[in-house]
Amino acid sequence: MNPYQIETRCLQGGYVPGNGEPRAVPIIQSTTFRYDSSESLGRLFDLEENGYFYSRLQNPTCDNVAAKICALEGGTAAMLTSSGMSAVFFSVFNIATCGDHVVCSSTIYGGSFNLFAVTMKKMGVEFTFVHPDCTEEELNAAFRPNTKAVYGETIANPALTVLDIEKFARAAHGHGVPLIVDNTFATPINCQPLRWGADIVVHSTTKYMDGHASALGGCIVDGGNFDWMAHADKFPGLCTPDESYHGLVYAEKFGKEGAYITKATVQLMRDLGACQSPQSAYLLNVGLESLHVRMERHCQNAQAIAEFLQNHPQIEWVNYSGLPDNKYYDLAKKYLPKGSCGVISFGVKGGRAAAEGFMDRLKLITIATHVADARSCCIHPASTTHRQMNDAELVAAGVSPELVRLSVGLENVQDLMDDIAQALA
Ligand SMILES: *Cc1c(COP(=O)(O)O)cnc(C)c1O
């Protein structure tokens, strides 16, 4: 399906211009599309034909970029969303609604945790959180008859735990449900979860994929392997008629390869409208074209900084899976052989106050609610992204009060070390 290596797909995947057509992905800045007859437009509304009629559902620029990410992940269908959060929400809500249950890794992005534990709980979807390092017995014990999905992050933000994707996929498939993996931090350059048994991959494209802090976005990719019809009783939304499309059954009409993304597009995007703008998709695509080059350098710089921090007397501990004494070193070797990502977390000696003082003294590395950017930045999760959590939840999420999350960028690595050294002095 993908004749070219991943580096080539970063540059040329998704959009293949015809003779005399624009070389760069064109920005189709149009909300609507013209048709010769009501009848031909009507066929699109019935999902009898593929085509564009309103950019809330689909737009050619966004589809070209989604197709590139689909090719990078090795999936069969993909869609862009307005943000990573909408991708996370749609990916779960597409198959788990009121009265359903989801098994979820406890070390996930704070925003996703809040969505699951608070907002989706109000919508009647219940989550059981399990530590990613749990035993298979503990994992299997978390399932209920109404469990519809399993969810985790390849590399958790900000805990940096590495998910044993095969273990989670085995448990999910043993209970007849798909595994959804948030692959934001690893990116498909460093890990392709679909190859390890995940069924659906989500991204905050706001992070490394864009890479330049210029456009919010998200993406959902379906691996096309999960057999919805084999578990039709669990997934009525995909396996029974949708009256809003004249009784069409997604899993029959679009098969394993297309049912999930088609349903998410024509139901969730239609009704909730969290679409990405063509301008943002264009910027995302520019980022994707250098993703493979950037990820390699992010990992090199982060490895050097992690080793520097580990040897620094003011540093209590360093968490980076590229360090041989890290708990996730072996899992990272297996799932992330090219490197993990540019994000490191560490504890400054002296607790919360020392961490905050260190950050205030940084000159080159900026304090920003952002991560996975070409420019280095850092944040104190306990007082920002994770401040809604109580102490027990913070511990479960792997976030201690002295934890600093450093996103190592693409600057000269010695300049970064000098900045850290002066701020610790
Ligand atoms: C940032 C992030 C999200 C949310 O993405 P937004 O684009 O900010 O909405 C989801 N998952 C992970 C792992 C993230 O880092």
UniProtKB/TrEMBL annotation:
<dbReference type="GO" id="GO:0030170">
    <property type="term" value="F:pyridoxal phosphate binding"/>
</dbReference>
<dbReference type="GO" id="GO:0005737">
    <property type="term" value="C:cytoplasm"/>
</dbReference>
<dbReference type="InterPro" id="IPR000277">
    <property type="entry name" value="Cys/Met-Metab_PyrdxlP-dep_enz"/>
</dbReference>
<dbReference type="InterPro" id="IPR006235">
    <property type="entry name" value="OAc-hSer/O-AcSer_sulfhydrylase"/>
</dbReference>
<dbReference type="GO" id="GO:0003961">
    <property type="term" value="F:O-acetylhomoserine aminocarboxypropyltransferase activity"/>
</dbReference>
<dbReference type="GO" id="GO:0019346">
    <property type="term" value="P:transsulfuration"/>
</dbReference>
<dbReference type="InterPro" id="IPR015424">
    <property type="entry name" value="PyrdxlP-dep_Trfase"/>
</dbReference>
<keyword id="KW-0663">Pyridoxal phosphate</keyword>
<protein>
    <submittedName>
        <fullName>O-acetylhomoserine aminocarboxypropyltransferase/cysteine synthase</fullName>
    </submittedName>
</protein>
<comment type="similarity">
    <text>Belongs to the trans-sulfuration enzymes family.</text>
</comment>
<dbReference type="InterPro" id="IPR015421">
    <property type="entry name" value="PyrdxlP-dep_Trfase_major"/>
</dbReference>
<feature type="modified residue" description="N6-(pyridoxal phosphate)lysine">
    <location>
        <position position="207"/>
    </location>
</feature>
<dbReference type="InterPro" id="IPR015422">
    <property type="entry name" value="PyrdxlP-dep_Trfase_small"/>
</dbReference>
<keyword id="KW-0808">Transferase</keyword>
<dbReference type="Pfam" id="PF01053">
    <property type="entry name" value="Cys_Met_Meta_PP"/>
</dbReference>
<dbReference type="GO" id="GO:0004124">
    <property type="term" value="F:cysteine synthase activity"/>
</dbReference>
<dbReference type="GO" id="GO:0006535">
    <property type="term" value="P:cysteine biosynthetic process from serine"/>
</dbReference>
<dbReference type="GO" id="GO:0071269">
    <property type="term" value="P:L-homocysteine biosynthetic process"/>
</dbReference>
